[in-house]
Amino acid sequence: MTKPLIVITGASSGIGAATARLLSAKGHPLLLLARRIDRMEALELPNTLCRAVDVTRREAMMAAIAEAESRFGPVDAIVNNAGVMLLGEMARQSPDEWERMLDVNVKGLLNGIHAVLEGMVARKHGTIINISSIAGRKTFPSHVAYCGTKFAVHAISENLREEVSGQNVRVITIAPGAVETELLGHTTDQAIKDGYESWKQDMGGVLKAQDIASAIDYAYAQPQNVCIREIVLAATRQP
Ligand code: NDP
């Protein structure tokens, strides 16, 4: 049987790329969105459309989804995964950094929801998977704006779930602890980066992107009448 279309944002590296590989192996056609199209095309996944879309650009995201739906049928799930983490102390951090986190992690996620929700509600079927973080449940040093964006993802997800559950649309929040990806690489404060790296080493390593992909796949693969509302997962030795 043909599997339905899944959209993954931030699919050019880390968790998004690992999720794309896994869901493609399960037979789903995919729409992959991120700015680095070469990295998504290099995954060489079958039945997959890759589009260079910045998630803060709502119209571009909607156009790419419309294109994918005309080729593969309606979107059954979106994984709102695109995100940036620019750690910093508020007294010293450039406002450009916290603006970017709010734009990508919050507005970009809302753009993804907006682009697919009307269709899901009309069809009374669909799944929205939002990637938050343990930093959306508790706070950490130098994480003020990042935690703010991820606490917002939890609030948005839970309130959205309440709003659309009656229309048979599932909303799932995945909240990972530290994962080995490119995420930390964008932080500009070298002392904070070094501290984070030694924290990871002290606990004997962190999760792999594939661990999060497996959690996403597990939640999505449940029957439509089962909604795993939230998965929080981290390396066993993460405090
Ligand atoms: P990566 O940096 O490896 O991946 C981030 C992805 O987001 C990239 O594909 C990047 O693509 C994309 N992205 C960034 N900005 C934009 C944008 N404006 N428009 C479209 N895509 C964008 O990090 P992870 O895989 O770790 O991050 C994925 C998600 O997981 C994030 O939401 C992150 O907050 C969350 N997370 C990660 C944890 C970790 O420890 N790694 C822990 C908890 C949560 P491109 O640059 O090509 O646009």
UniProtKB/TrEMBL annotation:
SMART domains named among the record's database cross-references: PKS_KR
Pfam families (UniProt xref): adh_short
PROSITE patterns: ADH_SHORT
Single Gene Ontology MF annotation: oxidoreductase activity, acting on the CH-OH group of donors, NAD or NADP as acceptor
The Ketoreductase domain, residue ranges: 4-187
Keyword Oxidoreductase included in the entry's annotation: yes
Keyword line: Oxidoreductase
Alphabetical list of InterPro entries matching this protein: KR_dom, NAD(P)-bd_dom_sf, Sc_DH/Rdtase_CS, SDR_fam
Family: Belongs to the short-chain dehydrogenases/reductases (SDR) family.
Name used for this protein in its record: SDR family oxidoreductase
Source organism of the structure: Trinickia fusca
